Amino acid sequence: MPHINAAAALQICVLLSALPAQYFISQWYGTDSAQRIQITERLIIASWSSFTKSYFSLDSWADRLKLWISKTRTCLNVGLLILHFRNWYYGEKKTESGANEAYAHSYFAESTHVRSPKPEYIQFSVGQVIVHKRLGYSGVIVGWDVKANAPEEWLQHKYPPAKQDLKDTPHYRILINKANGFGKSTAYIAEEDITIIMGLEVVHHPDMKAYFSGYDGSKYIMQPWLKKIYPHD
């Protein structure tokens, strides 16, 4: 129920004080009892009429309801505006953070963008077992880039001025066979450092089952999620 405002409270006070006010009215309008009664009756009727119009009228209650709905709607609109702004702000932050994270994980052939069509100059495929020509360790290919995709600091350290041309050649991500005792679990190497081994199934690495479901005699069989990224390998 709507609250009683100051004007309504004043009207009630006037109504309740109508009889005591008769004394003061008599001081101004004479001592005739009939006159005093008429003035008092008029005061009571006027106060009661104003009170009933304010609190016993459907139109009055309808106006109060409209006012309450208007205020409530305004509050809701402000609340929704704040909520939308908050969601937008944190959504933008989340999107920005997600983009940065995706960018960070796109290095070293870890990007999930689909490699299709596969360029003809990419000699090797995901799932093939390799041996590093110079370092001698074995492993399996789990990804490739058409050219080196790594932080600039890494590229500068990996390829001195005399080997800068290698940055523009295909690079492969390798899970290194733990049986070699090489000390590293992964590598990112240029195509010129790779020799393919056929018929060698045994590659020991804790992530093998995440990438492959088996071996077909020539290479490891990609898991469905990896096959989607490299559909032509």
Name its key features:
alpha+beta, 233 residues, SH3 type barrels, 2 domains, single chain, 5-stranded antiparallel sheet, Hemimethylated_DNA-bd_sf, two-stranded antiparallel sheet
Report on this model:
- This protein is α+β, with helices and mostly antiparallel strands and 233 residues long.
- It folds into 2 domains: 35-88, no CATH class; 102-229, Roll (SH3 type barrels), CATH 2.30.30.
- Helix content is 47%, strand content 15%.
- It has a 5-stranded antiparallel beta sheet, with no helix packed on it.
- Strand 1 (129-132) and strand 2 (138-145) form a beta hairpin.
- Helix 2 packs across helix 3 (33-55).
- The chain starts with 5 loop residues before the first helix and ends with a helix.
- Residues 89-104 have low confidence and may be disordered.
- InterPro entries: Clp_protease_adapter_ClpF (IPR053189), Hemimethylated_DNA-bd_dom (IPR011722), Hemimethylated_DNA-bd_sf (IPR036623).
- One of its GO terms (molecular function) is DNA binding.
- Residues 121-223 form the Hemimethylated DNA-binding domain.
- This is FBX21 protein.
| CATH level-4 homologous superfamily of the largest domain | Hemimethylated DNA-binding domain
CATH class identity of the largest domain: Mainly Beta
Helix fraction by DSSP (H/I, runs of at least 4): 40-55%
CATH level-3 fold name of the largest domain: SH3 type barrels
What is the N-to-C order of secondary-structure elements (H for helix, E for strand)?
HHHHEEHEEEHEEH
Q: Indicate the radius of gyration in whole angstroms.
A: 43 Å
- Biggest sheet layout: 5 strands, antiparallel
The proportion of residues in beta strands is 5-15%
Mean pLDDT: 77
Care to count the β-strands?
7
Q: Into how many domains do the coordinates divide? A: 2
Structural class: alpha+beta
Low-confidence stretches: 89-104
- Span of the ends, CA to CA: 74 Å
Architecture per CATH nomenclature, i.e. the level-2 architecture of the largest domain: Roll
What is the tally of helical segments? Answer: 7
User: What is the general shape?
Assistant: rod-shaped
Give the strand order, joined by hyphens, for the main sheet.
4-3-2-1-5
